[in-house]
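General statements about sequence and structure are easier to judge against a single worked case. No coordinates are needed to read the tokens, only the vocabulary itself. The sequence in question and its structure tokens are set out directly beneath this paragraph.
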Amino acid sequence: MPMRELRQTIDEVYHCEIGRDKAYKTIRKAFNMIKGSAEVQYSFFGESGDNPKFMRFYCCLSPLKNGFKFRCRTLICLDGCHTKGTYPGQMLIAIGMDPNNQWRPTTWVVVEKEAKEQWYWILQLLIADLDA
């Protein structure tokens, strides 16, 4: 339920107003009760007593990989952007150009920071995936 709708419903049903912060916290709490919080989800990765930390995620789907190998030009562009929120980091992407001069994603990666080590890791996996 959107925040505006929640505030309006509470005003109509209970004849009282709540602030935006209270409505946001209520929606967030309900969402966490339904879907679970990120902290709980991350706890499934570790054993009891451990404090696991997500470092990297690499994704190269077969249809995108095959599309690049058989349809795109032999040019790969690399770019990245910052991710914000509870778990900040970097999202890095490799894209190729198809015969219609349109960019197509090949691989995307989430890393803890953008540095030579992360780019080296990504390029090793990308080369292996593309059989280059």
Observations:
- The two ends are 48 Å apart (CA to CA).
- Residues 7 and 13 are 10 Å apart (CA to CA).
- The mean pLDDT is 84.
